[in-house]
Design goal:
Layout (H helix, E strand, L loop, with lengths): L6 E8 L7 H17 L4 E3 L17 H14 L6 H13 L2 E10 L2 E9 L5 E6 L22 E3 L2 E7 L6 H9 L4 E6 L14 H16 L2 E6 L4 H6 L16 E4 L5 E6 L4 E8 L1 H10 L35
Parallel strand pairs: 1-2, 2-3, 7-8, 8-9
Antiparallel strand pairs: 1-12, 3-4, 4-5, 6-7, 9-10, 10-11
Helix pairs in contact: 1-3
């Protein structure tokens, strides 16, 4: 039998994305993966849509003003099983670590806000598309489905993840908890440095509350990775010299234990890599208090229904399809 209480070294990337520049973003991601791997990280986690950055203009520009930016965003978004993902996979293999990275995924003419999971051999082993884009995010991304709520089984443990405001979807969180999630990926953008998001003033506080609560409620570790806004992003959006619209910095990144305690961080504003060693004995120690998917559950009163099937726009009914002459 394996070690019931393994230890896993992890890293949370707190960094700015090269805005609307996929190739530069890949190069930066590969450098950060190599650095974290050299530091001993077995799992490296990036923020939401690190490639090619978060579309901050959705909170500051009208749809008519956003058309050209969307076209650039589409062109720089990432297709799965492409040269871009091959490069990230190669970096993961070279560094000998698992990687979870946020991308704007391009699938046909639709984009998705996606987390992609790589193992330490560079293979894609999981994908999570954000189930429900938040507010004006719906002008950029489509929706995921139940197939994106599956736990990813790895040699490090059972990994799951949610993106930003999905953490307010308690049923989605419990779907992961019910599958025995051990390490949770919480990916977010640097909204606290943006003045025009409805929650920007309290975003860091809400992030902390959501991440620490999920750790304690699900008795799992949470790697919370947020991005940073840099001067190049501000310039690309036309906000240089206008701090009332957007400032440099932002983000709230931390690594959190199953009791909700902070293991590493929190960190804000400047780029860094947070490191921590996760001791799985802490999971069992807190499940002894309240295993919400086990002895602390009450299925006679409360149960969750989940449809894990992939959804399709087209369902072919063979019985109704006329035979060819």
């Amino acid at each position: 039998m394996g070690d019931p209480f393994p230890r896993v070294s992890v890293a949370a990337i707190h960094a700015a994305s090269p805005f609307l520049d996929r190739e530069a973003g890949v190069a930066k991601a590969c450098r950060l993966i190599a650095e974290a791997g050299a530091h001993g990280a077995q799992l490296v986690v990036f923020p939401e849509t690190f490639l090619p950055g978060y579309p901050f203009w959705i909170w500051t520009h009208t749809p008519a003003m956003s058309g050209e930016l969307f076209l650039r965003y589409y062109a720089n978004s990432v297709e799965l099983h492409s040269e871009t993902t091959a490069a990230i996979g190669a970096a993961a293999k070279q560094a000998g670590c698992h990687v979870v990275i946020g991308i704007s995924e391009r699938d046909g003419a639709t984009l998705y806000n996606t987390l992609v999971y790589f193992d330490d051999q560079g293979a894609i082993i999981g994908r999570h598309r954000k189930l429900q884009p938040t507010n004006v995010e719906r002008t950029v991304w489509g929706r995921g489905d139940g197939s994106d709520l599956r736990i990813v089984e790895t040699a490090l443990g059972r990994l799951g993840g949610l993106i930003c405001w999905e953490h307010s979807m308690d049923l989605a969180r419990y779907a992961l908890t019910s599958q025995g999630e051990q390490i949770h990926i919480a990916a977010w953008p640097a909204i606290s440095a943006l003045s025009h998001d409805p929650s920007s003033g309290v975003f860091d506080n809400l992030t902390e509350a959501a991440a620490r609560h999920h750790a304690a409620a699900g008795q799992c570790f949470v790697i919370n990775a947020q991005s940073v806004i840099d001067a190049a992003t501000i310039a690309a959006l036309g906000f240089t010299g206008r701090p009332e619209m957007m400032r440099e910095g932002g983000g709230w990144s931390a690594i959190i234990g199953p009791s909700g305690r902070l293991i590493a961080g929190p960190h804000r504003d400047t780029e860094t890599i947070l490191y921590a060693e996760l001791d799985f004995a802490e999971i069992i120690g807190f499940k002894y208090v309240s295993d919400t998917a086990g002895h602390y559950a009450r299925p006679d009163v409360l149960r969750l229904y989940v449809d894990y099937r992939a959804q399709s726009n087209v369902v072919v009914d063979e019985a109704m399809t006329p035979l060819a002459d």
